């Protein structure tokens, strides 16, 4: 999933996404740029903030979290 495209196409605020996910804007920028992976401890919160499933963000963690957002 392209997080940047999802944020832009759905009119989401990066500040709101970061607040809901408990990450900094700098961390989100690194994730968007592909320089950081979304950590296990934050993937569910970020998925919920974006309104997507964990599997959309980290398919490798689908078995751990299931496919729910």
Describe the structure.
This protein is mainly α and 69 residues long. The chain contains 6 helices and no strands. The chain has helices at residues 3-9, 14-21, 25-32, 40-50, 54-57, 62-65. The chain is globular and about 30 Å long. The two termini are 14 Å apart. The model has no long low-confidence stretch (mean pLDDT 91).
What's a quick, concise take on this entry?
The protein is mainly alpha-helical. It is built from 6 helices and no strands.
Summary tags:
single chain, 69 residues, mainly alpha, 61% helix, 0% strand, globular
- Following the backbone from N to C, one meets helices and strands in this order, namely HHHHHH
Low-confidence stretches: none
Specify the biggest β-sheet: none
What's the pLDDT, averaged over the residues? 91
Secondary structure layout plus pairing:
Layout lengths: L2 H7 L4 H8 L3 H8 L7 H11 L3 H4 L4 H4 L4
Helix pairs in contact: 2-4
């Amino acid at each position: 999933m392209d997080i940047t495209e999802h944020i832009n196409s759905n009119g989401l605020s990066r500040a709101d996404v970061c607040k809901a996910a408990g990450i900094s804007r700098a961390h989100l920028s690194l994730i968007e740029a592909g320089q950081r992976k979304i950590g296990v401890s934050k993937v569910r919160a970020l998925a919920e903030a974006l309104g997507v499933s964990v599997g959309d963000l980290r398919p490798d963690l689908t078995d751990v979290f299931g496919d729910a957002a």
